[in-house]
């Protein structure tokens, strides 16, 4: 759902998909081909949230800030399930792992990867291509070209997902049994797993 707060109504590009069970509030600007999953809370009541083209904010994520702060997700940023971004800047093509917490005034430069369950302390600054993990999070090593190819391929799936959702997503009743000939999964998604196996990531 989209909610006005004071004079601010969220701005969402028509190519982006916001799940009905997400809450987008206030001074939020969402670019092209963005996916926002169910349970996500994007609340810009005290500051501004900018989500640039091709980002995704997955299920149960929270984006918020202290008063007077801007949260910025740059182009292609990938925010994994359950992550919290509070008053931070996430660079282009970064990946924030599931259930990670990114605190206030953090800056992640382009193409960083933050491991799942990491806690990035207030004011931390990591240069481009940092692989960051732990509690508190520290730089472990550089992000390799192979890791970035895998990340980018996964993000591309999310960049295509808004169009797929608009074309085929709809509420329905559950079936009582499996239909004959039903495939085990969508074959198009095997490509991403193959990239992972090929590069031994």
Structure description:
- With 201 residues, this protein is α/β, with parallel strands linked by helices.
- The chain has a single domain (2-142), classed as UDP N-Acetylglucosamine Acyltransferase, domain 1 (3 Solenoid), CATH 2.160.10.
- The protein contains 2 helices and 20 strands.
- The chain has helices at residues 145-168, 190-199; strands at residues 2-3, 11-12, 17-18, 23-30, 35-36, 41-51, 56-57, 62-64, 70-73, 78-79, 84-86, 89-90, 95-96, 101-102, 107-108, 113-114, 119-120, 125-126, 130-134, 137-142.
- Strands 1, 2, 4, 6, 8, 9, 11, 12, 14, 15, 17 and 18 form a 12-stranded parallel sheet that branches. An 8-stranded mixed sheet has the order 3-5-7-10-13-16-19-20.
- Strand 19 (130-134) and strand 20 (137-142) form a beta hairpin.
- It is globular.
- The relative contact order is 0.11.
- The model has no long low-confidence stretch (mean pLDDT 94).
Strands, total number? 20
Mean of pLDDT: 94
Helix content: 10-25%
The count of helical stretches stands at 2
Characterize the main sheet: 12 strands, parallel
* H-E order: EEEEEEEEEEEEEEEEEEEEHH
In short:
By secondary structure, this protein is of the alpha/beta class. The chain is built from 2 helices and 20 strands. α1 runs antiparallel to α2.
Q: Which properties best describe this structure?
A:
single chain; 201 residues; alpha/beta; UDP N-Acetylglucosamine Acyltransferase, domain 1; twelve-stranded parallel beta sheet; eight-stranded mixed beta sheet; 2 helices; 20 strands; 17% helix
């Amino acid at each position: 759902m989209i909610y006005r707060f004071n004079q601010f109504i969220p701005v969402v590009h028509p190519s982006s998909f916001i799940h009905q069970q997400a809450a987008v509030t206030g001074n939020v600007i969402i670019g092209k081909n963005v996916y926002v999953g169910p349970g996500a809370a994007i609340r810009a009541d005290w500051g501004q949230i900018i989500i640039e083209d091709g980002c995704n904010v997955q299920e149960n994520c929270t984006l918020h800030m202290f008063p007077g702060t801007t949260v910025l997700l740059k182009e292609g940023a990938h925010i994994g399930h359950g992550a919290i971004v509070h008053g931070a800047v996430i660079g282009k093509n970064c990946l924030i792992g599931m259930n990670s917490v990114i605190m206030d005034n953090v800056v992640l430069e382009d193409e960083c990867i933050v491991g799942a369950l990491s806690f990035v302390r207030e004011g931390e600054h990591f240069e481009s291509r940092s692989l960051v993990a732990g509690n508190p999070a520290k730089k472990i090593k550089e992000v390799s070209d192979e890791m970035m190819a895998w990340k980018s391929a996964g993000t591309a799936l999310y960049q295509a997902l808004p169009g797929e959702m608009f074309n085929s997503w709809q509420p329905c009743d559950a079936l009582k049994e499996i239909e004959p000939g039903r495939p085990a999964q969508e074959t198009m998604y095997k490509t991403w797993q193959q990239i992972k196996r090929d590069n031994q990531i």
